[in-house]
Write a structure and sequence with these properties.
single chain, 180 residues, TATA-Binding Protein, 3-methyladenine DNA Glycosylase II, Chain A, domain 3, 2 domains, 6-stranded antiparallel beta sheet, 5 helices, 6 strands, binds iron/sulfur cluster
Length: 180
């Protein structure tokens, strides 16, 4: 076993859906070099090799995992015990991939393929600054650099912008698939 432990550090309400929680945790061992392998194993991912950071979106959208070399965040959880289950599952998955590394192909599909104007086009364009940036264009720029998650833009998760969000997610997936 490579990864010994993932501990939970904090739990807070999800910004996009207040009925859900998110947990943040720390990994006992550095998994940075395994992220391209995890990227190759899961279907719905957004990977940033520069940081490195990997987002794993589950098919049923029940939750999302955001993983860096030593830290993890899990969004859209019903409670902290579900967070514990997801982190235990993730630890097993990482150790499984570590054990099979020689037979797997790393996948370096990267977020850096994204175009700022394309991301901007699908944002709410309210310039409300809720994300911490003064304009949506600034947010799009920082998003492409890997500094934000979509969840950092709360208006995008309202019914009013549901279609824009779907289009943006479709673009993210499409941009990712173009990467060799
Ligand atoms: S929170 Fe969303 S809508 Fe508001 S400025 Fe940031 S990106 Fe634009």
């Amino acid at each position: 076993m490579y990864l010994q432990k993932i501990s939970i550090d904090t739990m807070q309400r999800c910004m996009a859906d207040k009925s859900k929680v998110r947990v943040k945790g720390t990994l006992s061992d550095d998994v940075g070099e395994l992220l391209p392998y995890l990227n190759g194993v899961f279907d719905k991912t957004i990977y940033n090799h520069k940081m490195p950071k990997l987002e794993i979106e589950f098919e049923d959208k029940s939750h999302k995992i955001i993983l860096t070399s030593k830290e993890v965040r899990v969004d859209r959880l019903s409670n902290s015990s579900q967070g514990r289950q997801v982190l235990d599952w993730l630890k097993e998955k990482i150790n499984e991939i570590y054990a099979q590394q020689d037979q797997l192909e790393p996948d370096y599909k990267s977020l850096s393929n994204l175009k700022v104007p394309e991301v901007y086009k699908h944002l709410p364009q309210l310039n409300c600054a809720e994300c911490g940036e003064q304009t949506c264009f600034a947010f799009a720029t920082m998003y492409v650099k890997g500094d934000y998650d979509l969840q950092d833009c709360p208006p995008l998760f309202t019914a009013e912008f549901a279609e824009a969000k779907e289009e943006l997610e479709a673009y993210l997936q499409e941009a990712m698939y173009k990467q060799s």
